[in-house]
C-alpha cells in the first residue's frame, strides 16, 4: 500500500516537473468549459499534443470522470458533462493526439500505428486529474476510445490511476463485411508492416453522421471539420493497429477494476436515409461487442440498450436518459 502511494506521488511530481503549472483557457464550447494543451514527445510525424477539456463541480468534489472519444471524433458532448457534474463528478475529457483540438498541421488526422501510442495521453491526463484533487476516477471510452481504454486498463492492471471502466459501444470489431475480413484484411495487415502510410478508402457511409448533426437529421451541434460525416481515409497502419488490438481483446484482457459494457440492442445496415437510423448501431456489429466483452477477465457486466445508437449518449432523448440512469446508478456502487 505504501509503495503504491509513493508511486502515485512520484508520478504527480513528474507531471508537475514536466508540464509546470497547467494553464487552462476558455474552451471552444464556452459555458464554463476550459482546455489545456499538453505537449507530448514527438513521434514519426513530428510534434504531438493532446488536449484536456474540463468542467468542475460548483462545490469541491474528489470524484471525476475522464471521457475518451471515438474514431473520427472529439469531445463535444456538453450534455454528458453536465449530467456528470450535476451528480457530483468533476468532468474531464481528452482529445487524443491527432484528433479534434489536438490535430496539428504536420499530422494526418486520426493517424496511429499502435493503439498504445495513446497511453501517454491517458497517463498524463489521469495524473493531472489526480493532482487537481480528484481521488476517485471513472475512466470512460466510446467506440475506438473504448477499445483504447480496454487495452490501457489491461496494461495498467494493479497500477491503475482510475477506479472503474465504462465502455460505450467499444470498437471490438472492425466495421467491415465478413468477406473483406477473410481476404483483404490479412493482406493489409501484412503490408502495413513496411508500408503503414499507404492509404485506403474505408467505404464508410455518411448516414451515421447525418443522423447526429443538426444540419442534417440529428440534434447535435459540433464541428464538421473535426468530425465530418465521412471520416478521412485511413491507412494500412491504422487498420493493423486496430486489428491487433482487437486480437488482444479476443485473447483476453485482465482488468482489475469494475467494467460496465453498454451497447445498442441491435445493429442496422441502411443503404439510404430513414428514421431507422435512430434505432440501432449503424457502425459495428453489436453481437461482436457482446461476444468479445466476455473475454474480459475480471468484474464486468454487459447491457444491451433498446433503441440505442452507436454513441449511446447521442441516442434519442428517452433512450439516453435511460443510459445516463444506468451509468450513474452503476457508478454510485463502484466509484465511492
Structure report:
With 336 residues, this protein is an alpha/beta fold. The protein has one domain (21-334): 3-Layer(aba) Sandwich (Rossmann fold). It has ten helices and 13 strands. The model is unreliable at 1-17 (pLDDT under 50).
Briefly summarize what is shown.
Residues 61-265 form the Serine aminopeptidase S33 domain. The protein has 336 residues and is of the alpha/beta class.
Attribute tags:
336 residues, alpha/beta, Rossmann fold, nine-stranded mixed beta sheet, two-stranded antiparallel sheet, globular, disordered N terminus, MAG_DAG_Lipase, Alpha-beta hydrolase superfamily lysophospholipase
Strand and helix map with partners:
Blueprint: H1 2-19, E1 25-26, E2 34-43, E3 46-55, E4 63-68, H2 78-86, E5 90-95, H3 119-131, E6 136-142, H4 144-155, E7 164-168, H5 178-182, H6 184-191, E8 199-200, H7 207-212, E9 234-235, H8 236-251, E10 253-254, E11 259-264, H9 286-293, E12 296-297, E13 300-305, H10 317-334
Parallel strand pairs: 4-5, 4-6, 6-7, 7-11, 10-12, 11-13
Antiparallel strand pairs: 1-2, 2-3, 3-5, 8-9
Shape: globular
Strand order of the largest sheet: 1-2-3-5-4-6-7-11-13
Quote the beta fraction: 15-25%
The helicity comes to 25-40%
Overall structural class, as computed from helix and strand content, comes to alpha/beta
One letter per element, helices H and strands E, the order comes to HEEEEHEHEHEHHEHEHEEHEEH
CATH level-4 homologous superfamily:
Alpha/Beta hydrolase fold, catalytic domain
Query: What's the structural domain tally?
Result: 1
Rg over alpha carbons: 19 Å
- CATH architecture annotation: 3-Layer(aba) Sandwich
How many individual helices?
10
Overall mean pLDDT: 92
CATH class: Alpha Beta
Largest sheet: 9 strands, mixed
Signal peptide: 1-20
Pfam families: Hydrolase_4 (PF12146)
Domain Serine aminopeptidase S33: 61-265
Protein name: Alpha-beta hydrolase superfamily lysophospholipase
Amino acid at each position: 500500500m505504501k509503495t503504491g502511494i509513493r508511486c502515485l506521488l512520484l508520478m504527480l511530481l513528474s507531471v508537475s516537473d514536466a508540464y509546470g503549472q497547467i494553464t487552462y483557457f476558455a474552451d471552444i464550447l464556452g459555458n464554463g468549459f476550459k482546455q489545456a494543451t499538453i505537449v507530448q514527445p514527438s513521434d514519426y510525424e513530428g510534434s504531438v499534443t493532446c488536449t484536456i477539456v474540463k468542467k468542475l463541480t460548483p462545490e469541491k468534489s474528489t470524484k471525476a470522470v475522464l471521457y475518451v472519444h471515438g474514431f473520427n471524433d472529439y469531445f463535444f458532448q456538453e450534455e454528458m458533462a453536465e449530467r456528470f457534474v450535476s451528480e457530483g463528478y468533476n468532468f474531464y475529457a481528452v482529445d487524443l493526439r491527432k484528433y479534434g483540438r489536438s490535430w496539428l498541421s504536420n499530422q494526418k488526422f486520426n493517424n496511429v500505428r499502435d493503439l498504445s501510442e495513446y497511453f501517454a495521453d491517458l497517463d498524463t491526463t489521469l495524473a493531472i486529474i489526480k493532482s487537481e484533487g480528484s481521488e476517485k476516477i471513472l475512466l470512460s471510452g466510446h467506440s475506438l476510445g473504448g477499445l483504447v481504454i480496454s487495452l490501457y486498463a489491461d496494461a495498467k492492471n494493479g497500477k491503475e490511476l482510475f477506479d472503474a471502466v465504462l465502455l460505450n459501444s467499444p470498437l471490438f470489431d472492425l466495421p467491415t463485411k465478413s468477406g473483406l475480413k477473410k481476404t483483404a484484411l490479412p493482406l493489409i495487415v501484412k503490408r502495413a508492416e513496411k508500408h503503414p502510410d499507404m492509404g485506403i478508402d474505408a467505404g464508410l457511409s455518411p448516414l451515421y453522421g447525418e443522423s447526429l448533426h443538426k444540419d442534417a437529421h440529428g440534434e447535435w451541434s459540433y464541428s464538421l471539420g473535426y468530425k465530418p460525416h465521412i471520416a478521412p481515409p485511413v491507412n494500412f497502419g491504422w487498420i493493423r493497429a486496430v486489428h491487433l488490438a482487437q486480437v488482444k481483446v479476443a485473447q483476453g484482457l485482465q482488468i482489475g477494476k469494475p467494467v460496465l459494457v453498454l451497447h445498442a440492442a441491435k445493429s442496422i445496415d441502411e443503404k439510404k436515409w430513414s428514421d431507422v437510423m435512430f434505432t440501432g448501431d449503424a457502425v459495428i456489429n453489436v453481437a461482436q461487442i457482446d461476444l468479445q466483452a466476455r473475454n474480459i477477465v475480471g468484474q464486468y457486466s454487459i447491457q444491451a440498450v433498446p433503441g440505442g445508437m452507436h454513441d449511446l449518449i447521442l441516442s434519442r432523448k428517452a433512450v439516453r436518459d435511460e443510459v445516463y440512469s444506468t451509468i450513474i446508478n452503476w457508478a454510485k456502487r463502484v466509484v465511492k
